[in-house]
Records
---
Amino acid sequence: MSANALADDATVVARILDHIDEKSTDRGEITWREPIENYRCERRYAAEIELMRRTATPFCPSAALPQPGAWLARIAAGTPLLAVRDADNEVHVFRNACRHRGTQLAEGSGCAKAFVCRYHGWTYGLDGELRHVPHEHGFPGLDRSARGLVPVQALEVDGLVYVTQSAAPGAPPPRLAPLATPGWRMLGAGEMEIAANWKILAEGFLEGYHIRTTHAATFYPLQYDNLNVVERFGRNSRIAFPYRNVNKLRAQQPAERSADGVLTYVYHLFPNAMVATFPGRVFVVAIEPVAIDRTRLVTYVLTDHEESDTDAQAALSQGADLVARGGAEDQEMACAIQRSLASGANQFFEFGLFESAIGHFHASLHAALAGTA
Ligand code: FES
Ligand SMILES: [Fe+2]
């Protein structure tokens, strides 16, 4: 990705300090008009799900599978999947279904030596192999080697486990620095369903033009409104949202400035995942379509703080509360947009020069669906 390499922290901070001085922000070259029909058309929606299935998308952080035997089940692009780390530390992802009569093998997360189907006890190894069939003589000619769990392509890169559900090899996942560091551990995970199209929820992560009005009592006291550095890498984007304390870095040598504690980076991993950095924490969010007008947000929270560090823990829980309240404000806006779709007021939504990461998202989506990217 050399042509698309992301700037280093010092460069991003310098751009932010310039924007503060100039009362400016990064601007795209064009506005983007997205037809309302694209949020309402079932055929478009089905094509988007197919695109997610043939794209390498983050399934969970590596830290969600911390040791051999650790497993995690969830639905990705409508498909129930089961990720597991085997005895050799390799991650496999399988379709979450027993090969006898289809009972789902696992729900939630846990740690196991093998998967035993709770219906009739067919037993699978961590590598997916069918190891044991009770009273196997009832299945004459059963070829156990052909009845292991059905794998999907899995790849562990930079602290994330990616899955590609279609058989054809897709584009490799983007390289991503923040989770690459060893030592990050899971702080928690959660799922919630929101009554809005998945693209509306994605859009809410990708601009800082709404900080003052939507997040008046949550993020705005700590963050700049409409002041962002927006970068693209391939079909993906990174948006930097500076905190007001970024000004303390003016006293430091430009080359020594770090982004830690002075800004949030939101990485949009095309098409439907976000990685957001906060002080001491990283959020990995999968934006999972459930229906054309319903979306499940699957969130994993990671930290690099020690469990024994109680001061850090207190600060983390305070910060988590703020992020949750800010997130609820974004979800409320998404639902309000969804409810307006039937109003007939708009033929298109217009994303302005400050919302260029959203324009890039839609342009990439159009190209991918048209088969030109
Ligand atoms: S459905 Fe799993 S053992 Fe029968
Ligand atoms: Fe927001």
---
Amino acid sequence: MTTFRNTWVDIDLDRLTSNIKILKKTSGKSIFGVIKANAYGHGDIEIARQLERLEVSYLCVSSLDEAVHLRNHDIKAPIMVLGYTETEHLSIAINREITCIIPSKEWLEEALAQNNMLDRLKLHIKIDSGMNRVGLKTISELKEVIHIARGHNLNIEGLYTHLSSSNIEDGAITKKQIEKFSQFKNSAEISFKWVHTSNSDAALSLGELDNISNAIRCGIAMYGYSTFEKGLDPILSMYCGINQVKKLAPGDQVSYSATYTAVSHETIAVLPIGYADGLDRKLQGYEFIVNGVACEVVGRVCMDLTMIRVPDYTTSKDIVEIIGKFGDAAKMAKYLQTISYEILTSISPRITRHYLLDGKVVKISNERFD
Ligand SMILES: Cc1ncc(COP(=O)(O)O)c(C=O)c1O
């Protein structure tokens, strides 16, 4: 496939494989790969295909839309919607073999009232163990849900919860949540095929503390990031070419609102990437790499373009590294006072994605051309 804009990301599928090996080895549990939000910006279809090859136990997404998108692209692996599914859409989940969650007793009652084929749907009960988002809040609610489910011969395949603070090293909140979740599990009086509590940071740090579950739901660590140093490798790098190289005289100003003024004779490069591609508008002052040299973003990031100050010898044939080994998404996130999740999920679909195996591009993907 040919695309015409010189801005792209490389996604190294071998690194995805080795990150998953680390997660498996460290946790000793089955992998549920979290590929919501377009696989954290990496492209859900190609990441799903690689995870299928790696035989992960589940692909997790946030909505029925995301799940159907995967099925429409011939993804056959088990898929689970981690978010809330409106009960009127459950027949779609049944027909497309998509697992849903029970977020509350009310939801289950409504679902049963609307759909007489619910026994064909795989369901995981979500426990709210302290995050106060989606999920059952009391043991009595869990008991009622299980009673109703038994009465209707439902396939309750799993029990799970989500941890709010697995990135915090002292682990006090996590410990409390796991203790609470254990009480729920012990009072359930049925057994589950899958019990899952840990996200990436928990999977890499809890060890024996999470001896209650048999699977981990990992997102960010598959893509190479974690609070904990475990030898993961970021799988995505972002690059662009240079549209124009320009000379500035002292006093020349750059971009909207003229927030940068050249103090001497300077050279800048105009790059084909902007905030509509997911590059944050607050990146003025951050550095990209050209020929191994750090080059400062000067002036405001525009919708489609960004300017950087470059050495005089820079030409329009040079390549700019925006995210890569000199500056990964965690470094950019730190500069922007956010998290690598936001940097990655912000990468817009209009950026072409190159997928690599053995160092070679095996697939080029861009939603507009696919
Ligand atoms: C319910 C649930 N489980 C698992 C994950 C994966 O988290 P992480 O990317 O930290 O591994 C998320 C991500 O937000 C989530 O919402």
---
Amino acid sequence: METMKGRVAVVTGAASGIGKALSLAFAAEGAKVVLADVEDEALTETRKEIEALDATVLAVKTDVTDENSVGDLCAATLEAFGGVNILCNNAGVGGGGLVKNQQLVDWKWVIDVSLWGVIHGLHHFLPHLIEAEESHVMSTASVAGLMAVPGLAPYNAAKFGVVAIMETLHHELARDEDANVGVSVLCPGVVRTNIATAQRNRPEHLRRQSNDAGSASAKAPEEARSRNAAIAAALENGMDPGEVAAKVIGAMYDNRFWVLSHPELLAEVNHRNQELANLENPTLISSFTD
Ligand SMILES: NC(=O)c1ccc[n+]([C@@H]2O[C@H](COP(=O)([O-])OP(=O)(O)OC[C@H]3O[C@@H](n4cnc5c(N)ncnc54)[C@H](O)[C@@H]3O)[C@@H](O)[C@H]2O)c1
């Protein structure tokens, strides 16, 4: 992408963490920013922060799990600015727990937000990105989309899916002479955000159920709680989201597909790939294992 000045950038999950940092960075580059998030108060707060930078900003309360809500976000963007140049499918949630302890609602919530959210974004925005003279689409996956971190199966499944979709899109758009759309996938390591409290946005009907009919929602089992506590502690020492946003902006200018916040983690990804190449059973050297 040559310039972001005057371009229209849509960011989902824009009210916190990486999405908020991306939104601030696009505003600093002179883009018009569309903030989409399910969390009302934080969304308003972020809009005010960006307005204070004298940037053009639109905030649209959006639930990325809802196809119609993302459709409304797209319509609001086109109505306000007449087109779109940058889409960041960034909203995502996660939580820990062994596969044997997952309830179906655990799978459903994580995959609805972190995978279907990306699919809804592409479904509604891609035709308009292709129409634009120059555009770029980025989706936030994770290193958990490149290697299977134990205790995070729904998250891994969603993030492997995001990587697969974006890689496919990259190949397809590279062959499409009518499109001038750059494609990137962001695979962060540990970043200092609010993802450890992602449950704050979990809808009531997808909360864990107790086995006793009629009783209150079930707590996560002890192993999941201690895993989540370890993730929360690691996040406190994670990378600043502003640093991650700067890497994304750089990748968009340079038209780079892979954006890794912590490239040193590739050693672990390469270990997996080498075992696959040798048809050996997977083993872990991961810093994410306990
Ligand atoms: N923080 C990390 O260490 C890390 C590592 C790898 C990947 N990621 C990914 O980065 C992305 C951003 O997460 P973050 O770490 O900044 O977390 P965060 O919790 O700080 O921000 C996520 C935002 O998404 C919003 N959101 C949640 N559900 C939504 C929904 N249904 N519709 C719209 N918005 C919704 C939240 O309100 C929040 O503002 C996610 O996709 C996450 O999986 C984060």
